[in-house]
Amino acid sequence: MNLARVNMNRECGVSLLEALITIVILAFGILGLAGLQSKIQTVEVESYARSQALILLDDMAARLSAHRSVAATYVTASPAGTGDTQPTDCSGTALGVERDMCEWSHALKGNAELSGSSAIGAMIGGRGCVEPLAGVDPPSYRVTVTWQGLSPTVVPGVGCAQSLYGANDALRRAVAKVVSVAALGP
């Protein structure tokens, strides 16, 4: 009977120790899930920004293709969008290239997407460039849309909006498309 009492006293602390170890393991698991959730949200924001950039890229490519005869006037000296000098309302801008550039600038800034009366935007610091490609026949133009990412990656190879996203150019994201403008005729 004395031996049974000694064994019982030894086993009383074991279940408490097992419970504490289980709590510690669960705490690390929950911290891991919280970190994973944070990373998922970052990736979701980046993915949404990229999809919006691709839509805006296709928009300008379509505008260039629709106005083949004046495609060279779409070339930008500085990036359109965030930080440009376009008016706040494009309705007073004449139709044609000027209106297209004003509307594209507003879309890059996110002014085309509203929640109530607030512009919610699609990308952080959206900018766009239209650059001629030299020595190419038929005439071709590179349309580029850039924005600021949430974490540094590889620096894009295109020069549009270079150094406009702070000291770390690895935060700049870019998508580009080449638009060739063939002369349509008999």
SSE blueprint:
Blueprint: H1 2-66, E1 80-81, H2 97-109, E2 114-115, E3 118-119, E4 127-133, E5 140-148, E6 172-180
Antiparallel strand pairs: 1-4, 2-3, 4-5, 5-6
Task: Identify the notable features of this structure and list them briefly.
alpha+beta, 2 helices
Please, could you describe this protein's structure?
By secondary structure, this protein is an alpha+beta fold. It has helices at 2-66, 97-109; strands at residues 80-81, 114-115, 118-119, 127-133, 140-148, 172-180. Strands 1-4-5-6 form a four-stranded antiparallel beta sheet, with helices on one face. The longest helix is centred in the first third of the chain and has 65 residues, at 2-66. The model has no long low-confidence stretch (mean pLDDT 87).
List unreliable stretches of 5+ residues.
none
How many β-strand stretches? 6
Strand numbers in spatial order across the main sheet: 1-4-5-6
Number of helices: 2
Gross morphology: elongated
What proportion strand?
15-25%
Structural class: alpha+beta
Major sheet details: 4 strands, antiparallel
> What's the number of structural domains?
1
Helix content: 40-55%
Q: Helix and strand succession?
A: HEHEEEEE
Let me know the average pLDDT.
87
**In angstroms, what separates the terminal alpha carbons?**
112 Å
Rg, Cα atoms, Å: 28 Å
